[in-house]
Amino acid sequence: MSASKQPFYAPIFFPIVNIIEAYKLSWKEVVVLPMKILGILNFPGYLTLVASSIRAAIFAYMAMYWVSEYPGFGTARTFELGWMMRLVTRNLVFTWVMCGVWDWFLYFSPMKEKMHKYKITPKYPSNSQFWQDAKYTTLASLIAAGIEISLCHLWSRGLLSYHTDWWSSPYLNFAVLGTTTIWRSPHFYLIHRLMHPWRSPHLPDIGKFLYKHVHSLHHKSHNPTSWSGTSMHPVESFLYYSACFMPALAGLHPLITLTFIVDAGLSARTSHDGFTWPGSGNPFHMLHHSAFDCNYGNEQIPLDILFGTFAAKKGDIRKIWH
Questions:
Q1: For residues 178 and 165, what is the distance between their CA atoms, to the nearest angstrom?
Q2: Are 314 and 290 in contact (CB under 8 A)?
Q3: Which of 102, 108, 134, 303: disulfide with 297, CB 3.0–4.6 Å?
Q4: Segment 236-252 mean pLDDT
Q5: According to the model, what pLDDT value does residue 3 have?
Q6: Using an 8 Å Cβ cutoff, are 210 and 82 in contact?
Q7: Rounded Cα gap, residues 271 and 259, in angstroms
Q8: Is the pTM higher than 0.90?
Q9: How far is 41 from 290, CA to CA, in rounded Å?
């Protein structure tokens, strides 16, 4: 049978609903993975994106309100080791638990053989790739913490204004919060396309330079796992997480900015896991990892179709760059 599609609400309950579904599936089931990518989402696909945004908002709310007073509300007026280390530790623990547990389930647990039929690329990555990805994803989480620390300091000093009362603009706040993943899409396409060869006869190929010295590190994960999602050069990590500057500079509530940071990390790590449902990998982006010169964005906003860089299969690459 064909690989099933995840229910739209699955991101909110990740990874519990994924694990339950995996255990329910038959060991003897023959799975045919989807061979063609559409490049644009249907209505349930957009509901899934809203669910992903809600998931990020839940984690952001917990990080902001469940532990202690959030530093961005005043504590961070001065750089003190105590509050800064709380943010760093929170980021690292969340990253290690999320990537470690999910990759263990998919690649090392007793369910490994059962899940293999849902692997987008049948071959498994080497242990050396796991270690390299874990190292650079840890570094990316530190950079994300550094960005958040800087924003908390600016908010606390009054150098960066924000809406203090969430309920003064509830419709706007909830609308942005529920569509976070979609808002990040143009930013992701822009920085990602920037770091691949531009192939323009009219411009110096800065993208070729950036690919060689920056983005090629991410593409060493040619057979991605969850640890690969944010396995990036420090320059790329900063650019990737800089999506949070959009709500911050717009003066929106810090919860929205933190939701952008959380969603950037979570979405990258789940979409790179390498498996279709009951995994959470993204075949659209997996094709980019195996073919490089296509599918720079994602299916939320079909910018690849608009700019002529979309490929539904490997054979389409030569049509893009003929």
A1: 18
A2: yes
A3: 303
A4: 98
A5: 44
A6: no
A7: 17
A8: yes
A9: 21
How many angstroms separate the CA atoms of 132 and 227, rounded?
A: 9
User: Which residues, 6+ apart, have CB-to-CB distance to 211 below 8 Å?
Assistant: 195, 196, 197
What number of other Cβ atoms are within 10 A of residue 79's Cβ? 11
> How far apart are the C-alpha atoms of 45 and 210, rounded to whole Å?
32
How far from 158 is each of 54, 145, 152, 260, CA to CA, in Å?
A: 28, 20, 10, 21
Q: What is the 3-state secondary structure (H, E, C) of the chain?
A: CECCCCCCCHHHHCCHHHHHHHHHCCCCCCCECCCCCCCCCCHHHHHHHHHHHHHHHHHHHHHHHCCCCCHHHCHHHCCCHHHHHHHHHHHHHHHHHHHHHHHHHHHCCCCHHHHHHHECCCCCCCHHHHHHHHHHHHHHHHHHHHHHHHHHHHHHHCCCCCCCCHHHCHHHHHHHHHCHHHHHHHHHHHHHHHCCCCCCCCCCCHHHHHHHHHHHHHHCCCCCCHHHCCCCCHHHHHHHHHHHHHHHHCCCCHHHHHHHHHHHHHHHHHHCCCECCCCCCCHHHHHHHHHCCCCCCCCCCCHHHHHCCCCCCHHHHHHHCC
Place of tokens 């593409």: 219
pLDDT confidence of residue 202: 87
Residues 6+ apart with CB under 8 A from 179: 49, 50, 53
Higher pLDDT, 201 or 271: 271
| Alpha-carbon span 134 to 101, nearest angstrom | 13
**In angstroms, rounded to a whole number, what is the distance separating the alpha carbons of residues 16 and 266?**
15
